[in-house]
Amino acid sequence: MNYFLTNSIKEDDALRRSYNSLAEKTFGLSFEEFYLNGYWTDKYIPYSLIDDGKVIANASVNILKFHDNGQEIRCIQIGTVMTDPDYRNQGLSRYLIERIISEWKEKCDTMYLFANDRVLDFYPKFGFVKAVEYQCSSPITPTKGHVRKLDMSRASDRALLKRYYTKSNPYSALTMEDNYELLMFYCSSSMKDCVYFLDDFDAVIIASNKNEILTCYDIFGNGDHSLIDMVSKVAESQIRTVVFGFTPAKHAAFHSQILEEEDTTLFILKGKDHWFVNHQVMFPILSHA
């Protein structure tokens, strides 16, 4: 293999454009706004193979820090695994995954990834094993309150979100810490219309209403109020159920079931999964990179 490996595409305009082109072709997404808004930091490290100035394959390291009931968990999530169709069947993804494992395995408590269905037989070759996540839900009744949808195009509202993010999610058993950038990957794009300020509770909630289900992705505040009381304030009149995108700290009070997502399977590197197995939690949806 005579291709060039680099971790430094972020500041190279030509390579970054090529990276975005491959990401758009593969996943339908671009990291350009993520970069231009200053959210692409050293917590997101692409391992990219280059051929004649073109990104032909990639696997990225996402450095994440979680707290599990007060215990800090240092995680590496592998993502953005992609290969240009003209360069497939050359073992490029294998090379990149092996390189990442060799460089990061001893620097983290857990290494994991989310795989789509067509590669479920690929990742076990590297020692990754399937893991089960559990998701909590509860019946709710919508109630009225002082709720303001934040405008993510306004600097003042982004600053408000950042200020409350530093309070973390006191209702979550497994919280992602110190990664406002990844939060904004969502809140400046697919979740930009899902961010609310709850004046009555002095909190920010990220949630979406669809049909009869409210999905609560995250809550940032002091933790002084009832979780159900808070989510009911952003529920539209037709909502009957709230589904949580994180594991509530008091999850025994909620209905919990195995999380089954279409075309998504969690794999954790064997030997790095001891704290997760039989824990009945989920990685917060907004921590998926």
TrEMBL record:
Signal peptide: none annotated. Keywords: Acyltransferase, Transferase. InterPro entries: Acyl_CoA_acyltransferase, GNAT_dom, YpeA/RimI_acetyltransf. CDD domains: NAT_SF. Pfam families: Acetyltransf_9. GO terms for molecular function: acyltransferase activity, transferring groups other than amino-acyl groups. SUPFAM superfamilies: Acyl-CoA N-acyltransferases (Nat). Residues 7-157 form the N-acetyltransferase domain. The keyword Acyltransferase applies. PROSITE patterns: GNAT. Transmembrane segments: none annotated. The keyword Acyltransferase applies. Gene3D superfamilies: 3.40.630.30. This is N-acetyltransferase domain-containing protein. The lineage of its organism: Bacteria, Bacillati, Bacillota, Clostridia, Lachnospirales.
